[in-house]
Design brief:
The complex is a heterodimer of chains A (113) and B (113).
Chain A (H helix, E strand, L loop, with lengths): L2 E3 L4 E5 L4 E3 L2 E3 L5 E7 L6 E6 L5 E3 L5 E5 L4 E6 L8 E8 L7 E2 L3 E6 L1
Chain B lengths: L3 E3 L3 E4 L5 E7 L5 E8 L3 E10 L2 E4 L6 E7 L2 E6 L8 E8 L8 E2 L3 E5 L1
Classes of the chains: A mainly beta (113), B mainly beta (113).
Chain lengths: 113, 113
């Protein structure tokens, strides 16, 4: 069965510093990969997605993610965080033969001034 | 823009009550989902529907049922609410194409007392 692991439950970062959120997946074939963000009390908003091609993908709000097949990873990065980036971030995996998405446990990001 | 609307943001119900959570999407998507979100567990799939009157159990279907009588509407039913069903419930929809993302509603925070 496929699984998604986000090793970091909580990350605190200073405003203006860089941010990297880790995501590892377990699946037989290359799946479709997503990062979502959830602000407090809100639903999930898509940040970016990877299906094929260039392994470095750009998303909204200045985020990017890199797919590394050899490491089964899809880490999310932002060069300089803003206070508004404080939220919960979810990595999701969609298999190549199913519409159902599997989600990681999430990483909560706190931004300090 | 795709809009997924959940009928209630907050609900408080009593143990043993039958509870209906409603979700409507406006983009004619075939696929609709109900997820449950709990701290530290991420999103877990309760049920999936891939067409009107068609449904498939997710990872945690026990204690829940669903109804999809119209394409745009997907209802989650708690037959007899219990305190361990206190949670955030998220509805999503997705096109019938694997290289697309899921769109989420704002969520319903259900408290069972």
């Amino acid at each position: 069965a496929q699984s998604v692991t986000q090793p970091d439950i909580h990350i605190t970062v200073s405003e203006g510093a860089s941010l990297e959120l880790r995501c590892n997946y377990s699946y037989g074939a290359t799946p479709y990969l997503f990062w979502y963000v959830q602000s407090p009390g809100q639903g999930l908003q898509l940040l970016l997605k990877y299906f094929s091609g260039d392994t470095l993908v750009q998303g909204i709000k200045g985020f990017e993610a890199e797919f590394k097949r050899s490491q089964s990873s899809f880490n999310l990065r932002k060069p300089s965080v803003h206070w508004s980036d404080a939220a919960e971030y979810f990595c999701a995996v969609g298999p190549s033969n199913d519409y159902k998405l599997s989600f990681g446990a999430g990483t909560t990001v706190t931004v300090r001034a | 823009d795709v809009k997924v609307t959940q009928s209630s943001r907050y609900l408080v119900k009593r143990t043993g009550e039958k509870v209906f959570l409603e979700c409507v999407q406006d983009m004619d998507h075939e696929n609709m989902f109900w997820y449950r979100q709990d701290p530290g567990l991420g999103l877990r799939l309760i049920y999936f529907s891939y067409d009107v009157k068609m449904k498939e159990k997710g990872d945690i279907p026990e204690g829940y049922s669903v109804s999809r009588e119209k394409k745009e509407r997907f209802s989650l039913i708690l037959e007899s609410a219990s305190t361990n069903q206190t949670s955030m419930y998220l509805c999503a929809s997705r096109e019938p194409a694997l290289n697309t993302e899921a769109f989420f509603g704002q969520g319903t925070r259900l408290t069972v007392v």
